[in-house]
């Protein structure tokens, strides 16, 4: 009798589980902390990407999508813990995150331990798909080398002398290293590097060191700033009048709020990952229209990235025919899919998403709150030689 009851109970539980078998995606990201604005955009984009790719059903082949959120609070140890919790306790089939490169690097071994996919979005450090990579890691976000190669195209040239200012952690140091490597092909030279704590708000001392190092340098002098979060180094250093030393400020793209400082620098050139008016494709058209209607503003830098990750998840599960990790890896290696930036492709060797970048020149319009990155040239996948991990 016990055996019969046990068998019946087991069968009932199995049927119940089958009936409620959602596709569970964990978004593990810094909802609170210094990069909260980035995180909010990333989550909105992820949900809009899932919606777009499923035609609003939030189902893949009849299976409902369940998205759970885990807050890393920008703490690497907490990032590891909540990702493990998502895989082990919440039954996540795969995860997306993190905002911070330092947190993302801490999370990589957890994906390997649980043999589950982690889609890195939007953390940038090269080492994520470089020396610290494992086969369970895919990245939809751009990496430091993609930023670097694009900005080297925009800024490099013979007799160009560049100082860099960056945050003293993986994002900043990987970014400068990649930028220096990319510049080597252009004839430009980095003559000074300055690293400051991530929470720096007073840039006086750092700027003075840069000015002193550049004062007697001959050539076309630029200060290239790599920065994430608040602090506004560009605006504050620009207020110190670097032009008296013949130095022009340059930087890459950023969120719209940060780009208010760009309005002070008409004509400044750089390269960006995304600006809502640049890509011309149906996915971006949908994103811009829907985001404007729902939130009263255009989609931002990390909204596009989150959407790219959401679409990639749907396409991968459809292609794999399941959420089995090995089937997903096979489906995703070399996979191409359409995003707000156009076509992306997961490179089989390191699972980095190859994608377009955009060389821009800042245009200022009185009724627009930020400096507008006007397209100079789209740098397509085939235009950039992005290093493969060692």
Automatic annotation (TrEMBL):
<keyword id="KW-0732">Signal</keyword>
<dbReference type="InterPro" id="IPR051010">
    <property type="entry name" value="BCAA_transport"/>
</dbReference>
<keyword id="KW-0813">Transport</keyword>
<keyword id="KW-0029">Amino-acid transport</keyword>
<comment type="similarity">
    <text>Belongs to the leucine-binding protein family.</text>
</comment>
<dbReference type="InterPro" id="IPR028082">
    <property type="entry name" value="Peripla_BP_I"/>
</dbReference>
<protein>
    <submittedName>
        <fullName>Leu/Ile/Val-binding protein</fullName>
    </submittedName>
</protein>
<feature type="signal peptide">
    <location>
        <begin position="1"/>
        <end position="21"/>
    </location>
</feature>
<feature type="domain" description="Leucine-binding protein">
    <location>
        <begin position="23"/>
        <end position="363"/>
    </location>
</feature>
<dbReference type="Pfam" id="PF13458">
    <property type="entry name" value="Peripla_BP_6"/>
</dbReference>
<dbReference type="InterPro" id="IPR028081">
    <property type="entry name" value="Leu-bd"/>
</dbReference>
């Amino acid at each position: 009798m016990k055996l019969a009851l046990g068998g019946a109970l087991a069968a009932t539980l199995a049927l119940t589980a089958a009936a409620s078998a959602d596709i569970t995606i964990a978004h593990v990201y810094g909802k609170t902390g210094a990069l909260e604005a980035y995180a909010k955009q990333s989550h909105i984009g992820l949900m809009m990407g899932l919606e777009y790719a499923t035609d609003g059903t939030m189902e893949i082949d009849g299976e409902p999508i369940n998205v759970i959120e885990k807050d890393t609070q920008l703490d690497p140890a907490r990032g590891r813990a909540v990702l493990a919790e998502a895989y082990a306790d919440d039954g996540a089939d795969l995860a997306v995150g993190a905002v911070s490169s330092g947190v993302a690097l801490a999370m990589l071994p957890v994906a390997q331990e649980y043999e589950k996919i982690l889609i890195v979005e939007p953390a940038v450090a090269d080492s994520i798909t470089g020396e610290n990579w494992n086969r369970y890691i895919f990245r939809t976000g751009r990496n430091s080398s993609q930023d670097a190669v694009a900005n080297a195209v925009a800024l490099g040239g013979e007799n160009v002398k560049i100082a860099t200012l960056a945050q003293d952690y993986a994002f900043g140091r990987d970014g400068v290293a990649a930028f220096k490597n990319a510049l080597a092909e252009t004839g430009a030279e980095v003559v000074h590097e300055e690293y400051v704590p991530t929470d720096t708000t007073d840039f006086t001392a750092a700027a003075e060191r840069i000015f002193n190092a550049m004062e007697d340098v001959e050539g076309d002098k630029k200060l290239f700033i790599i920065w994430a979060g608040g602090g506004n180094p560009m605006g504050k250093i620009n207020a110190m009048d670097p032009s008296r030393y013949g130095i022009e400020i340059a930087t890459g793209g950023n969120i719209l709020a940060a780009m208010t400082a760009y309005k002070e620098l008409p004509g400044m050139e750089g390269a960006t990952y995304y600006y809502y008016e640049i890509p011309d494709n149906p996915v971006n058209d949908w994103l811009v229209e829907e985001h404007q209607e729902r939130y009263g503003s255009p989609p931002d830098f990390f909204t596009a990235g989150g959407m790219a990750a959401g679409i990639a998840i749907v396409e991968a599960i459809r292609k794999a025919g399941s959420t089995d990790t090995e089937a997903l890896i096979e489906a995703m290696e070399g996979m191409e899919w359409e995003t707000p930036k156009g076509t992306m492709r997961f490179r089989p060797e390191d699972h980095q998403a190859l994608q377009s970048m955009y060389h821009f020149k800042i245009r200022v319009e009185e009724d627009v709150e930020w400096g507008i990155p006007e397209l100079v040239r789209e740098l397509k996948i085939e235009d950039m030689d992005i290093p493969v991990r060692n």
